[in-house]
């Protein structure tokens, strides 16, 4: 592109480094910001700079936090003996949004993926083992994606945790609510028959 | 959404004010920035803040510029007696990218649109009339979009400029290169027959 201004070019180039943002989209967003008040643009830029500079990770569960201890780990009302292991902070937000979970979390910071060069030592796995070894834990829930990387990580975590004789569970897999059988993929449908559960009227809403 | 951090929430909210960016996309972009080096995020934030603070508009053509006079108006080699009138700086970039135009520009800053409350006085129309009245001008090219607002603006500019006896032209409209006749809309095809032009072998590449 043929920019009339170096400032404009810099801003567009910075924006187009974001994932999924090309040069045309970047230009559109930058011109949008140019039409805003100067204070608004400063709020935007400073929010990003402050975020990167001041954000912390919870010392216990490694979730993104404003303090040394995140809101969830610091809350008095949570069940402190249940740990739900997730890939990243987005999963914590998704589970919190369900309103169905009241224990603590452990954010791994990724999944084991030899293809991307991510091994167990790149993730917060040792500190999970440490938590299970040193604090009273009643249950470890492994809530990982049903992908190759998720399954690899699941198996590795199981091997590391099994000797502590703490119940290890995974989230239920099967046909989604509202999903029709004929459109479900074969593996999901097959597994959901094999892992069928007793009918519970208490779960019907 | 249920944010674990106020800093994160602020950054996501600022991002989701951008056009076409929802909360989920904003979160994805913010988490991407969190994984970058602090210097990179500062470059990004500061590029936006500096842009809004330091950007100028060319005193002659109102294009976005780093200086009082934009690169195009300041260039020695351009044909200074031809003015191409466009809606905004994106159109300047699009025409510059063709490499087919060597005159100057005049950026209106929008189009007349009574529906959006934009009248002639909100645009840089008086300064265009001033340029035509006080500097030697050989031709004014009106390169506006073929929309209702574009046509309204075109007609208004024609009325304001016609008494100066300067040739006023508009960019050619018709079937796009590579376009097939059977898929062209009726108005474009009809007009392109009415405004047919002599066959010129010199334009064949």
UniProtKB/TrEMBL annotation, chains A, B:
CDD domains: TOPRIM_recR (cd01025). InterPro entries: DNA_Rcmb_RecR, Rcmb_RecR, Rcmb_RecR_Znf, TOPRIM_dom, TOPRIM_RecR. GO terms for biological process: DNA recombination; DNA repair. The keyword Zinc-finger applies. May play a role in DNA repair. It seems to be involved in an RecBC-independent recombinational process of DNA repair. It may act with RecF and RecO. The keyword Ubl conjugation does not apply. Belongs to the RecR family. SUPFAM superfamilies: Recombination protein RecR. This is Recombination protein RecR. Pfam families: RecR_C, RecR_HhH, RecR_ZnF, Toprim_4. GO terms for molecular function: DNA binding; zinc ion binding. Residues 81-176 form the Toprim domain. Keywords: DNA damage, DNA recombination, DNA repair, Metal-binding, Zinc, Zinc-finger. The gene is recR. A zinc finger (C4-type) spans 58-73.
